[in-house]
Amino acid sequence: MESPELSFTLAYVVFSLCFVFTPNEFRSAGLTIQNVFSSWLGSEDVGFIQYHVRRTSITVLVHSALPLGYYMGMCIAAPEKNLGYIHQVSDSWRAFLLLSLCIQLTSWTLVIYWSRHHWHNHPISRALQAHIQPPHPGWGSVASSVNTEFRRIDKFATGAPGARVIVTDSWVLKVTTYHVYMALQTECHVTVTESRQHQLTPDLASPAQILTLRVDSINPAVRPFDIRLLSTEYAELREKLHAPIRNSPNVVIHQTMSELFLETFRAQVDLNQPYTLPSGQEVEPCIGCMQVPANSKLVRLCQAEGRWFASRQDQQRPETWLSSRVPCPTCRAKFCILDICAVH
Q1: Which residues are paired to 237 by β-bridges?
Q2: What is the pTM of this model?
Q3: Taking Cα atoms as reference points, which of 234, 237, 274 lies closest to residue 253?
């Protein structure tokens, strides 16, 4: 049987990781900084900057208290260790307690320093100070501009609470656990640096392409930062983003569900047994476009192509596309993706 000490340690580690990185299950249960301290944080819509100044500060305090919370919990989970009596504990536990107290004291000192002069020293306030220029005489005026534009319903917003991307008429914002990155659209340019294909995602039943975009500002006081979003959201981002967007070489952006499906379809066909074309046999035109030679073959001797397969699917249920059966475009016999062979 596992000891209570080990059981508590495993449970606390899992809880701490979930509390810091916040999966959907924790958000649904309300176990987030935003929900637990909602009465003190106020409304994000009313004061976006003030809300996140308070949120990041309380996040630092709560996260830094996790090691001390583990020690206090262990006092209850393993009473035989007498952890409540400092002079009786081992050197290792005494060192852990001292480290936990130092972390907590340091975080409180940091937050108190941030809060001086109406949060003038907070990292978010310092980021705003980099944008002090006419018509904004101070960082408070810049904050008011961000707050006003955030309240507008036409802003672009996407991402989880710990990695949100927000684009307003004038600003590009990235909200993270401990900071809010910001850049003026008139001073920045955006580069698509990477694309990644994810076959399974927690929120989507179909494959998803994640784009990474780097935001660089001509203002030397503004640090570059990366934002991530789904390729299907890229078109909406471009509509709201007035700053120029550049594509890195070899980065292909799939903006529709059909394009995502075609790439997955081709990858699956490549795993099937290839068909070697006999010498002297001519390849007929593709039955889908009738413009290029067919590059695939069905076991029933019918040519087909991925776009035909995709066009015969239920557009409202993309999760069933790969497992579906569709009629051959010539003989109408039903076939599935495993029947398709690449022509070599």
Answers
A1: none
A2: 0.70
A3: 234
